[in-house]
Description:
By secondary structure, the chain is mainly alpha-helical. The protein has helices at 5-11, 13-27, 29-49, 53-62, 70-73, 104-112, 125-136, 139-146; strands at residues 80-87, 90-96. Strands 1-2 form a two-stranded antiparallel sheet.
Amino acid sequence: MKKSYFYTLSLKPINVFFDIIADMIFQGVFMRFFLLFILFTLTLFGESTFITKQEYASSLYKNPRGIGCGHCHGENGEGKVIANYIHKKKKRSFIGPQINNVDFRRFYAALTRSKKGMPRYYLTQREIEALYFYLHQNDKKEEKHAH
Length: 147
């Protein structure tokens, strides 16, 4: 005895639903719809859910691996006195040097090698580029205002 479509629907609607979905996937209709939906969603909401290059660079500068660059090099890389002390009866200062005036080659070398007083953070190439961007993002703006 052959079952009718109505009989199948009335007894097992969930099976029919999955059969229809399986047919749609097989035919590619569902996959096309799904891809269009994902692309539409990313286009519509994509910019508001991801951080900008400036936000990423700023957060990295403020806290790359537990301690921010600004603690030693100043808020904008201008340099900063970290500590004053006396050594052999002479006043001395431990200073985080200015880093917003360093070219990328020197900046990269300083972050990838151990140096006295400078912790090694084991940053990726992308993170180093983001930090450099953070320190130099206003350079072109300042050049325009100077001319």
